[in-house]
Design brief:
This protein is mostly helical and about 280 residues long. It has one domain (about 45-265): Arp2/3 complex 21 kDa subunit ARPC3, CATH 1.10.1760. Helices cover about 75% and strands about 0% of the residues. It contains twelve helices and no strands. Helix 1 (about 1-25) packs across helix 7. The protein is globular and about 55 Å long.
Length: about 280
């Protein structure tokens, strides 16, 4: 009974910490607007990163001891994180257009095949390892890790949906996954903008101001997003869509083959003597 609620509780705490880290500036006293986001957020980074890594380590230890993920799947997670981090290193070495990044391809597919827990860890650890490799460690990193984790975690929602519609292994499956990747290509930018937006000063109709109501805040953010980020995120969304559409099916087959091997439970065949005793 304890294992049923403890694991989901850990992931819930992870998500709540991420949400608080993104939204708390909106509840600070007046005077934060116009400050440099890097200076403001740099004070958060050690605490947020420590909490996130501590929770991720707790998750790994718990999953190895439980039944959700065996040691083989944990090893596979390490390999996939390394592959994804290398892809991001190539992205930095050879920059693509706009916000395009190949790392979401595996985050979405692994979350879909192996479940929300695996997907969350895939997103979090990919952004951490790739940031270390590319020198991208900064106050923005915890928010990137949380958001990438949510990408992988939410991909698991599609599995029961597509199974219920009998679309697993069908052509429609990959189109839906590609659309999901495109959706998160946009949402990643929408969420990550919140990391800096409360600290930026500018035209009143595009920037946050202390004491502004929720609806007006949404309107101002929408104006800011349309003018500064929409095209960038469309490129990321298009890249996710095309990568999953082009390479998704063979990757899904490979991931499912590994899943079958790593979750196979050996049941020995009874000896002839044992069978005769049972029949007797």
């Amino acid at each position: 009974m304890k294992s049923r609620w403890l694991s989901p509780l850990i992931y819930l705490v992870c998500s709540l910490v991420g949400i608080v880290s993104l939204l708390y500036p909106f509840f600070l006293p007046q005077g934060t607007t116009g400050a440099q986001p890097g200076l403001q957020r740099s004070a958060d980074m050690p605490l947020m990163l420590t909490v996130l890594l501590g929770l991720a380590l707790l998750v790994l230890v718990y999953e190895v001891q439980g039944q959700a993920m065996n040691t083989k799947l944990i090893a596979l997670l390490g390999v996939l994180v390394a592959i994804n981090a290398a892809l991001r290193f190539l992205e930095v070495a050879i920059p693509g257009p706009g916000g395009f990044s190949p790392v979401f391809f595996l985050i979405v597919l692994t979350g879909y095949v192996y479940g929300a827990r695996f997907g969350f860890l895939m997103g979090v650890l990919t952004l951490l390892v790739s940031a270390i490799l590319t020198g991208g460690v900064g106050p923005w990193l915890p928010s990137q890790m949380f958001t990438a984790g949510w990408v992988g975690m939410s991909a698991a929602i599609l599995r029961p949906l597509l199974l219920g519609l009998h679309l697993k292994g069908q052509g429609e499956e990959i189109w839906i996954l590609a659309g999901f990747g495109a959706f998160w290509g946009m949402m990643y930018g929408v969420i990550m903008n919140l990391w800096t937006w409360p600290f930026i000063a500018g035209p009143a109709d595009q920037y946050w101001e202390y004491g502004v109501g929720i609806w007006e805040t949404v309107q101002r953010y929408a104006s800011y997003y349309l003018l500064t980020s929409l095209v960038w995120d469309i490129v990321r969304a298009s890249g996710n869509f095309l990568l999953i559409l082009g390479f998704g099916m063979p990757t899904l087959r490979t991931l499912r083959r590994f899943k079958q091997r790593f979750t196979f439970i050996y049941k020995p065949t009874p000896s002839p003597v044992a069978q005769s005793n049972l029949s007797g």
